[in-house]
Amino acid sequence: MKTGTRLVMVTVVAVLVSSSPHLAQTRPGASGRDAQLSRLLDRVWWNNPDKISELNLTDEQRAQMDVHLVDYHSSLGAERPLRRIRTEFIDALVSGSWEEAHKLSAELVEGIERSTLRKNDLKIQVMGLMSGEQRGLFATEYPRLLKRPWPRTKTSSSPATVKERGAD
Fold first, then answer.
1. pTM
2. Of 83, 110, 133, 151, which has the most beta carbons under 10 Å away?
3. pLDDT per position as a tens digit, 7-63
């Protein structure tokens, strides 16, 4: 891809991110979330030069994929982090607060369900931007990418897990 085209795409995504009501709010950590999103956009599979070439992805497809990822990322700010709920659940178990543990267990299950739904929606939106030929090639060449969560979580991309699976 030409550098000028990439610059235009990055600028468009940056404008979308800065205009997002979730990311633009001035609250602690907002700049950290913007930096996290920027890193995520840089390393997501559809911005990998080898995959761009092999799948013949257009700049327009990739820009739209980036927009869907920004939307997904923006939706995360509205919810209580699952790791906090897990920690509170474990604390309730250890302290013998059974009623609280039941409540937190239900909240955790609902949060995991919502998270899975959002990640699956992202896959549907991104794959929907590809032609049938691109999807077929993607499924043949990158089956692990279809099976793993999008975007990858910290635990799913840990060095030990990557070593077990092999590089994508």
1. 0.67
2. 151
3. 445 444 444 444 443 344 333 455 777 888 888 898 899 999 999 999 999 999 999
Confidence at residue 17, expressed as pLDDT on a 0 to 100 scale:
44
- The helices-and-strands tally (H runs, E runs) of the chain is 10, 0
Residue 143: phi and psi, rounded to 5, are -60, -30
CA-based nearest residue to 101, from 85, 80, 113? 85
Q: What does the DSSP assignment read for 95-124? A: HT-HHHHHHHHHHHHHHHHHHHHHHHHHHH
Contact predicate 89/105, CB 8 Å: yes
Six-digit token pair at 24?
Answer: 């633009």
The two three-digit tokens of residue 147, written as one number:
């099976």
Residue 103, pLDDT score: 97
Neighbours of 14 (CB within 10 A): 15
CB under 8 Å to 137, separation ≥6 — which residues? 54, 55
CA-to-CA distance for 4 and 43, rounded, in angstroms? 19
